[in-house]
Amino acid sequence: MTKIKLEDVNRNIYDIKNEDRYDFKIKKGLTKDIIKEISKQKNEEEWMLEFRLKALGVYNSLELPTWGPDISELNMDEIATYVRPKSKLNSSWDDVPEDIKNTFDKLGIPDAEKTSLSGVGAQYDSEVVYHSMKEELIKQGVIYTDMETAVREYPELVKEHFMKCVPVYDHKFVALHGAVWSGGSFVYVPKGIKVDVPLQSYFRLNSPESGQFEHTLIIVDEGASLHFIEGCSAPKYNKVNLHAGCVELYVKDNAHLRYSTIENWSKNMLNLNTKKAIVGKNAEMEWVTGSFGSKISMLYPMSILNGEGAKTEYTGISFAGLGQNLDNGFKVVHNAKNTSSVVNAKSISKNGGKCTYRSLVRINENAKNSKSSVSCESLMLDDISVSDTIPVNDIRTDEVEFSHEAKIGKISDKAIFYLMSRGLSEEDAKSMIVRGFAYPISKELPVEYAVEMNNLINLELEGSIG
Fold first, then answer.
1. Domain boundaries of the chain, sorted by first residue
2. Mutual orientation of helices 32-41 and 172-180 as an angle, nearest 10°?
3. Residue 420, Cβ neighbours under 10 Å: how many?
4. How confident is the model over 280-320, as pLDDT tens digits?
5. Rounded to an integer, what distance in angstroms lies between the CA atom of residue 390 and that of residue 437?
6. Fewer beta carbons within 10 Å, N or C terminal of the chain?
């Protein structure tokens, strides 16, 4: 029986490169003067500059993590942390510069907005270049805008929540983010409002030897609900690019939030992103995530269940190919009685790629009668790929229900033989097994709303076996 051969994903759509044209690009490096210049370029108030400088101090005091993938190749002296494109913020695609608009056209974002979304934000390099939301949501009091606008127009709401869910001292790259953040999305859903059609933000990095540091801040007030989608991509360059975004999610009492994202960065990207949610009483937080790109990824979304009866569910998949080391997972802390968490993670590795599932489940003493179920499965498609599972389960009370299972394996020759005996070719049999393995995850992805996500799933899981 011949071994599986998986070619690299055809990234022609995502590797579109525009000329590196910009209105302003900060010099490479990370100093106080550079931070002050970023703040000056943004015409920020003094409190934000002070915040940035404090975060820079925290960054300089912390060491690089040594427990995960080797990221010693990252040299901040070779990274430009702010690139302002030749475009202002627009509310019509017709007003977006032609080269930038064409990129988003090819990624399918304008078409998705017309058919499946109630609002769209599009960021190019360090700034949001397009933003719109349907009129009926505006009338309901829903706020969906870029973060810079939110800082100016909703300062008290931003100050109350900005980097409180994810403090700058969490780790070195959160501190970096606090110092140089730019762009991103701000959402506020008022009490009792149900946003039935998703909102989506898309982040595109074009400039080489640069970083993207968007900040997403979502507040779903009591009894409200929202589905928010994020997508991202970048063309491949020969030198390292950096992504160190931050996502802060506040799900108030009796509220519901589903946050769906596909991390589809190019193979020269270091993806050091941070995402965290604080979940209130009887509230629900759902994560649906896919990690398909980047050279190195260190990404561990987290739910903090602070309210009695709070629930969270994580559904995720990673797909690592040649030269990729994807270190992903999920963290949940149970801080109240009758809380529950369900984790369903899968990974696929091929052509020597490495997938690691790294997790934390902590059930504190006061979280009696809580439940947690963790399942992680890994599929290796050849003899040179790697898959590791590193769970930490910290259970501090006996009055809980907890289960954890992990499976790591290769495609079964018996399964291939059986499918071939039913008339399938070997290629189709292998493809069917991979799709079947990924289906419980991929069916949760909002492919009907995000054309880019649909294309990516097809390329990775359907069109890559041959």
1. 24-412
2. 50
3. 15
4. 999 999 999 888 789 999 999 999 999 999 999 999 988 88
5. 21
6. N
- Bridging pattern class, strands 296-299 and 269-271: parallel
261/248 Cα distance (integer angstroms): 14
How many CB atoms are located within 10 Å of the residue 461 CB? 23
Secondary structure element (H or E) that encloses residue 265, with its range: none
H or E element at residue 460: none
**Residue whose pair of structure tokens reads 């910009």 in the numeric block:** 22
Q: State how far the Cα of 149 lies from the Cα of 127, in Å rounded to an integer.
A: 11
369 Ramachandran zone, left/alpha/beta (phi>0; psi -120 to 50): left
Do the beta carbons of residue 321 and residue 294 sit within 8 Å? no
For 151-191, strand residue ranges (E) read 184-189
Helices (H) and strands (E) in the chain, counts: 11, 26
Total length of the chain: 466
- Rg (C-alpha) for the chain, rounded Å, is 22
Confidence (pTM): 0.91
CA dist 139 and 126 (Å) reads 30
Tens digits of residue pLDDT in 388-442:
999 999 999 999 999 999 888 887 788 888 888 988 887 778 777 777 777 776 6
Give 82-149 as a DSSP string. Answer: -EE-S---BSSGGGS-HHHHHHHHHHTHHHHHHHH-SEEEEEETTEEEEEEE-HHHHHTT-EEEEHHH
271: three-class secondary structure by DSSP: strand
Q: How far apart are CA 85 and CA 123, in angstroms?
A: 10
* 170/374 Cα distance (integer angstroms): 24
**pLDDT over 90 for what percent of the chain?**
57
Q: What is the mean pLDDT of the chain?
A: 87
